[in-house]
Amino acid sequence: MIDEVLDFRLLNDFQRDFPLCSAPFAELATRLGVAESAVLRVLEALRREGKVARVGAVFAPKRIGASTLAAMAVPPDKLAGVAEAVNRFPEVNHNYEREHRYNLWFVATAGSEGRLQAALGAIVQAAGYPLLRLPLLQEYHIDLGFSLDGKGEKPTPSRVRRQAFVPPKPLDEFERRLVMALQEGLPLFIRPFSVLASRVGCDESEVLGRIRRWCDEGIIKRFGVIVRHHELGYTANAMLVHDVPDEVVGDIGERLAREAGVSLCYQRPRVEPDWPYNLFCMIHGHARAEVGARIAELRARLHLGDYAHAILFSLTRFKQSGARYA
């Protein structure tokens, strides 16, 4: 019973606001009233079970490197083979089958726009099918944290749209090495930041200082326990897309972003005539009927019925891993 409570607290309470100090797991243990060894043991068990992807940083899109959402229309009998070919590229970190003519959807990330373009060209050649490239234009809410008890307050996204976009600056050598180390997640040791510092070739204080600064600047969106939603019971998820006039897409996007159950919300470009939709959001739930009902309720209450839309439920998860910028 104690382990069940500890499992839940670690999964639910520390997806953000993780202690950035020399002995973070000892700090977690103090807050939870258990031994540091128990925290490390449970986190390692959750990682082996697939419920925790890693403990570490989630970088904000468009703040370092380059990334894009992409989609392919693949004949159903070829889908598994094409997905396998796409998965071989380290730039691909998420790859899903969805219900649509465009049935293969993946996210590709690279250290620069040039490297991303090169990777996408190689992916097209390996897969044998053209792709839609749908880069992020405007973020309204990107979090993918899950309140497992339903009581957690959703981080407010209201200020995001009003922030001026700052183009990513090239990483210096220290930053590149630190990003590489962070991509793997924190090592589950007593002094994890000291281990990272030895890998990067600097002092622990420099690592902690740079991570804190990146958090303050919004380059790191959150630092904490990164959970896998499917393994936690959120087995139904749908990408809801709308074709909204450009002059109102921001207002509608912000309204959607504030809604409970909307884990992602952003504007991406239309690609006419194949893809007419410009406003995307993701809704996760425990069952398909639950997600469908939530979408119907949202569309009715927010008066979205006049806008063309599509609902793309996820069918197969081919790949899910952390983004690799370096």
Polypeptide structure, described:
Residues 66-140, 232-319 form the Siroheme decarboxylase AsnC-like ligand binding domain. The chain is α+β, with helices and mostly antiparallel strands. The chain is 36% helix and 24% strand. It has a domain at 2-62 and 161-227: Orthogonal Bundle (Arc Repressor Mutant, subunit A). The strands form two sheets. The protein has a nine-stranded antiparallel β-sheet. The relative contact order is 0.19.
Q: Give the strand line-up of the largest sheet.
A: 5-2-4-3-11-8-10-9-6
Average pLDDT works out at: 89
Please identify the structural class as seen in this structure: alpha+beta
| Assembly category | single chain
Q: What is the helix tally?
A: 10
**Under the CATH scheme, which class of the domain at 2-62 and 161-227?**
Mainly Alpha
Distance between the termini: 41 Å
EC number: 4.1.1.111
GO molecular function, one term: lyase activity
Family: Belongs to the Ahb/Nir family.
Protein name: siroheme decarboxylase
